Write the structure tokens for this entry.
Amino acid sequence: MFEHPAALAGAPVNWPALHRILVVRPDNLGDVLLTGPALAALRAAAPHARIDLLASPGGAAAATLLPEIADTVVARVSWQQIDGATGRERDPDGELVAELADRTYDAAVLLTSFSQSPWPAAEVCRRAGIPVRAGMSKEFGGTALTHWVPAPDDGLHQVDRALHLLGRLGVPAAARVLHATVPAAGRSRARAALAGLGLPASPYAVLLPGASCPSRRYLGFREVAAGLAGRLPVVVSGPAAEEELVRSVADGLPDVYPLAGALDVPGLAGLVAGAAVAVTNNSGGMHLADAVGTPLTVLFAGTEDVDQYRPRSVPAAVLGRPVSCSPCRQFRCPFALECLDVPPAEVVAAALDLAAPGAGPGPEPRREGLPVA
């Protein structure tokens, strides 16, 4: 089978000679954490280069956990906005172009999911004068990318998708599991938060009931918290915007402690890293636990293909129910979240099965529906 004649038409990249590299991933926190293996591969290939990240406001905080990243360019880019620019806004990315031009990057690596196009970002980087612009997609879009790689199968895990792009550019994978470095200040803030709740440093479970959209939010977290609290203390956490949700899960339950808005992302990473087990939706919290090494039980909604995002770095139980409408990509479920129709007792059993020995063994979970990672 022959590739498109424009595939990898650019000259081979001399990675060790590069001084400044921009990695483009303007998505959510979890998406940025999924770039970790690609960043490690770039660091090994270009050991003397400064690597910066172009991130969204929501994803930028994850950069503090990835040691390969020197600096972050934070922007709400036009190609990631649902509402779109108005007709009066003739150049919504003009300020970003100017900032990238001032930073004089040697190369830009554009990382995308299977449903995203690299071409708008490539055009911004072209206008900014970045000479090497590499990305991957099904469709060919001209010279905005100097190094275009035809996309692999849609079902590839997001980590492997990014590594496929780099591999075609002569950059071998250094690892295929997530990683994150929790700053000492983040661990300290987590310990202080636990002390403020009257809890010892361990063991405890962390529940992260939030997600970026309602269609990904399991509705049985309160029952799960109550079930886990019989074995070990439970901390229910999230950002300040999720305070109402966190309290709806925790309030009035013995040995269940709400902790919303008290920790920044490094602090939350410290909290999750110290936990015996984490219970999350398929959200940034899932990828955070995966990256910091905490065993993980995931309520995985039918919004996405599990194999593209499943945890791969820690022991994990991925729970859900197969439905005909998955993957739906919807922000709000038009039905009754049948894909998350998992009994809380099953979630509790799976979490206790994965928890550190101090929590004691739980009953054998029924692992129906989605496979366990």
